[in-house]
Amino acid sequence: MNLGLRSILTTVAICGFFMTTTVIGRAQTVGQGSCIGACKGEVVGILVGIGAGGAALGIGVYYAVHHSHTLTGCAGTSASGLQLQSQSDRKTYVLVGEIAGIKPGERVSVSGKKEKGSGIPQQFLVEKLTRDYGACPASS
Length: 140
Fold this sequence. Notes:
alpha+beta; 2 domains; rod-shaped
């Protein structure tokens, strides 16, 4: 996830936390029709605020953790199998997984996950061929 989206989600989570924990000071009078302690409406408001803050935090964590990668580049062959030269980060990835529709020499966009490991080139687990753009441009 890019840094901008992560900082926005962090800011929303922090603001939600402070909105649910802020105590509003006001004078209390003892008499008919006044509440001593918390009134029913205040309790409901606090619970709604806590629920909204929890939901915002849950959604932020979901998007921070559960994201899919997309790579676009030219497919080719190597000794280790089908590979993709990514246009975005200029790295070469060995493609594994759902690669039946990918032809060497084609510019494609695939979605999946970067495999963790120290292998060079890094493996990319293809979950889906997103788009086939046709033949790769000629190298100069």
